[in-house]
Amino acid sequence: MLSYRTFGSALRYACGTWAAAALMLAFAAAGPALAAAPPVPYEQAGSVTAAVRDLRWTDLSRQRTLPLRVRMPAGDGPVPVILFSHGLGGSVDAGQFWSEHWASHGFAVLHLQHPGSDESAWKDARRPAQALREAASAEQLMARAADVKFVLDELERRRVAAVAVSPDDAWVQRLDLQRIGLSGHSFGAATTQAIAGQSYGRRGPALTDPRPRAFVAFSPSGRDATATRFAHVTRPLLALTGSADGEVGMGLGVPPAQRRAVFDALPPGDKVLIWLTDADHMMFGGGPRRSGAAWNTNPGPALDLLHGRIVRATTLAFWRAYLLDDADARRWLLQQAGSYVGRAGEVVLK
Burial level of 80, CB count in 10 A (0-12/13-18/19+)? Predict the structure, then answer.
């Protein structure tokens, strides 16, 4: 059984890459851009416009207020919903590029901000790196999982009584809560894995939740990934990582092979790995690179553009396949995505 101390140490080791990248200034040469197959419809922006609103919901039982950002597709009909969990030290800004793409194709996206492991953990700290290491803890992972459960509970409650709660909650009535996806980057990927069923000894069952139908983990983490620890992750899961998705300094981060090990430990059945050559940690975060900072390896705009189109295409196809039961999207993902990625990386199925 994984001890509490070991659990916390593993999390700090595996999930701290966002923080280190956010604080480190460095410059790295970009490798040559690799060719991928011609564009496919899944990588192209959809025709649906989406309204963006920022909210704050309070879990009274925990006295915990969560900042939220909603991207809501225009229209009147029901829409599936994807929750997005940011990395260590992040905010509702994380995952912007991916959520804009998904929303343009008719998916509602709800970004969660997790107090204690968000940007507040380092912005005013005297020693930001130390503060972030401490924030990558077992307690914070459990709080994050509870945040996801709270938001799912609130969606159900507000969907039933949207007008009674607030006229501003009318959008919740359009959400198809039988078609929920959960996604996240770095510590958000660890959050996603926990909700999906990753075992943490006796604490594992308290973290998982049966409501999401499918999961996307950007930069997954698992220092001691074993089949036993992931045996209960039986729902569809897409993992995305790459050869430069590793160490970023200050003793944080993990070797890329340890991110890939999460996929290797998953049980077979609707599991997909997208492995991209030279893709670094912050590319998977889905946000702009900050001026003057390397943000890990900073491979350059051309490579970012290539990796970004692959991420958009494969994640959209995955959500369509497993949230909308789209047989064509599933067929493309399982049979053609490998050729589409081409020399830019590889697609592995199990």
Answer: buried
Residue 64 burial class via C-beta count within 10 angstroms: exposed 0-12, middle 13-18, buried 19 and up? middle
Which tens digit of pLDDT belongs to each residue from 127-142?
867 777 787 888 999 9
Integer-rounded Cα radius of gyration of the chain: 19
Helix (H, G, I), strand (E, B), or coil: what is residue 346?
Answer: strand
Using DSSP, state whether 132 is helix, strand or coil.
Answer: helix
Do 337 and 314 touch, CB atoms closer than 8 A? Answer: yes
Rounded CA-CA distance 122/136 in Å is 12
Residue 276: name the closest of 297, 290, 291 by CA. Answer: 297
Instruction: Write out pLDDT tens, residues 180-191.
Output: 999 999 999 999
How much is the pTM? 0.88
Distance between CA atoms of 3 and 337, rounded to whole angstroms?
Answer: 40
Encoded amino acid at 168, one letter: D
DSSP H/E element including 69: strand 64-73
Q: Is the Cβ–Cβ distance between 93 and 120 less than 8 Å? A: no
